[in-house]
Specification:
This protein is α+β, with helices and mostly antiparallel strands. The protein has one domain: Yope Regulator, Chain: A (2-Layer Sandwich). Helices cover 43% and strands 21% of the residues. The chain is built from four helices and five strands. The chain has a five-stranded antiparallel beta sheet with strand order 1-2-3-5-4. α1 packs across α3. The longest helix has 30 residues. It is elongated, with a radius of gyration of 20 Å. The relative contact order is 0.16.
Length: 159
């Protein structure tokens, strides 16, 4: 298995981004830190990162704030992560610097070509959008008042 050095990694991904630029009309290119941000019509933003000398590309998308999330959300994310079956190979994590729950995925560059890179990005946006909707709905249900006789009585008394 050959390892592409860091400058070649970024050159390769920039070539693929140039191809996406031609198709989308966006100006896509890795910055000096090896990062490119791409927005999506769903309102999600994906960071594509190509760190030095790893021969990998990383994609991550913030889904929602971590602060104030119900405790059961961590368990739900961990359960959905299992084997990547329910997440199309992606994983959930907490970005402590940004205070966000993110979904991320990585691939070895040597396993991709331009078409596969573009398909991976599109599929990843779809996966992220699905899970953002799922997790937001989960949080709403988890934080909703319990439907008990006492809760109904209290709601009735509040008017």
């Amino acid at each position: 298995m050959s390892q592409i050095d860091s400058s070649e990694d970024q050159i390769l991904v920039n070539l693929w981004l140039r191809g996406l630029s031609a198709k989308t009309g966006l100006q896509l290119r890795l910055n000096e830190q090896g990062v490119c941000a791409i927005g999506h019509t769903s309102g999600l933003d994906c960071a594509i990162e190509v760190p030095d000398g790893r021969g990998r590309v990383y994609f991550h998308i913030p889904l929602m704030p971590w602060a104030g999330a119900p405790a059961a959300l961590a368990e739900r994310c961990l359960a959905e992560n299992f084997l990547g079956i329910n997440t199309d190979g992606a994983s959930f994590a907490i970005d402590r610097d940004e205070g966000q729950i993110v979904v991320w995925i990585t691939r070895r560059l040597e396993t991709l070509d331009e078409a596969q890179f573009g398909k991976l990005l599109v599929d990843f946006f779809e996966t992220a959008n699905h899970w953002r909707q799922e997790l937001l709905a989960f949080c709403q249900r988890a934080m909703a008042p319990a439907d008990t006789p006492l809760a109904r009585s209290e709601a009735f008394l509040r008017g």
